[in-house]
Design a protein that fits this description.
Rossmann fold; 7-stranded mixed sheet; 7 helices; binds guanosine-5'-triphosphate; alpha/beta
């Protein structure tokens, strides 16, 4: 059967717990938002439950299938291993503009990427929850500066009000497409799930 896409890119979202990673994925993939907070961390039950969603988009006339992985936050950033980063072609770092600590921790997440992800992986910084301006603790300029210092794309987003969500994912996909097509020609690169990952993903929850 003919493939329904030209490229398959694995993306990861990382950042502290509660910054809105799951909501951003749901807004992008399903165009939906639910304000009921159920942390990806289920204490004592599924300490490393990792989930993904897929969405196929059009980039530069190509069908790009994005496999977007979600994980829980800060409690576990020391335990996120190379296994989670394996095959990632784009990493989205997320902080909450109303939570200074989540912004400070971006440095730790960047360190974790350096230690675990493949070099050259495309990165992007998102300051989420920009709909709650009244509670802002991190200026837009601070986010822009951090992204500029690391040479990565930056957006302020709102999963709730649907601000810059599609733009950011598409922007990152475009960066990856540019990088991989330069490197490996029109066929690009594919991420294949291992059989264990496939089995676990079927239950929508991958334990690493
Ligand atoms: N106002 C506002 N609230 C948001 C936004 N995005 C997420 N939230 C809220 O923030 C809380 C946490 O969102 P999640 O998407 O579960 O955060 P997470 O980063 O996936 O958290 P973990 O699963 O614990 O890692 C929820 O109550 C959401 O409703 C946003 O853009 N604006």
């Amino acid at each position: 059967m003919a493939k329904k896409y030209d490229f398959l890119f694995k993306l990861l979202l990382i950042g502290d717990s509660g910054v809105g990673k799951t909501c951003l994925i749901i807004r992008f993939a399903d165009d939906n938002f639910n304000s009921t907070y159920i942390s990806t961390i289920v204490p004592g039950v599924l300490p490393s439950c990792i989930d993904f969603k897929v969405k196929t988009i059009d980039v530069e006339g190509k069908k790009v299938k994005l496999q977007i992985w979600d994980t829980a936050g800060q409690e576990r950033f020391k335990t996120i291993t190379t296994a989670y980063y394996r095959g990632a072609m784009g990493i989205i770092l997320v902080y909450d503009i109303t939570d200074e600590k989540s912004f400070e921790n971006i440095q730790n997440w960047m360190k974790s990427i350096k230690e675990n992800a493949s070099s050259g992986v495309n990165q992007m910084l998102l300051g989420n929850k920009c709909d709650i301006e009244a509670k802002r603790k991190v200026s837009k300029e601070a986010g822009e500066k951090l992204a500029k210092d690391h040479g990565i794309r930056f957006f302020e987003t709102s999963a709730k009000s649907s601000i810059n969500v599609e733009e950011s994912f598409i922007g990152l996909a475009r960066d990856i497409l540019l990088r991989t097509s330069k490197k490996s020609g029109p066929a690009g690169r594919e991420v294949k799930l291992t059989s264990t990952e496939k089995k676990k993903a079927a239950s929508k929850c991958v334990l690493l």
